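Tutorial sheet, problem 5. The two components below are modelled jointly, 291 residues in total.
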Amino acid sequence: MRSLSTSTTVTRGLGILTLVGAGALVLFGLVLSPADEVQKDSVRLMYVHVPAAVTAYLAFGVTALGSALWLWRRTRSLFWDRLAGASAELGVLFTGLCLLTGMLWGRPTWGVYWTWDARLTSTALLFVLFLGYLALRRVQADPEVRARRSAIAALIAFVDVPVVHYAVDWWRTLHQGSTVSTLDPKIDDLMLFSLMLGMVVFALAYAWLVTHRYRLAQLEEMVDGRRLELAIEERRAEAELVVGTAP
Amino acid sequence: MTHVAYIAVGWIAVFLVVGLYALSVLVKGRRLAQRFDRDDLPWG
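Model answer (structure tokens):
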């Protein structure tokens, strides 16, 4: 018999699929795909940098959707609040990785780790905004109150996502523009395949992690509920003892 | 650093950070799940 955990047959299958995909990504990204004519081998950072960015968009999109559905009376349920919180944590994780890999790619390509370019600055702002969102979620409050203020904060923070995405079109930036979002991508076939594989693998990792993080949030609430019940029982027992011993 | 070093640091950091995060979520989940009966777990 399996021990108790947040895993099920489906999540175990998803986890194995993610690991196999990660292995294939290493093979294609680091071995089989060719080096770039201009950027040489440093282009291989693209296969983790771009998927991290896209997965962060996905995670924050789910957070915004969950927040909006929580705020809408018809669909109000703590399910949406938990999903929003779990997804935001992953969004912050992938945004952090996007910033880190971007800096490591920027140094050999641009000559600097960091520049206050519109894309980089708006991404750093997104990271900080959702860190603040996660901090807000940790403030002790009634679950409904916490869910409401977190949902409003998430929707405000999400406004930065399109700013990050279109920053390369709206302003003159050092960061390159879109390479694959056009119908005629300006990229080698094997490089394109490796990039798409990266996006699929990161999306699988996101789905796997968000499921486990959601279940962990459920468990944390169950533990809090149990603690509250225990505290109420103890107070009741104390009260009965006081009444019983009163002259 | 050489190009190879930047690539190595980037890729290792991604796998390490995601792996450690996954491990922490799984370990915390397992620890908390042990406090309940299987029937109490919504996915059990």
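Marking note: DSSP finds one helix and no strands in chain B. Full credit if you identified this.
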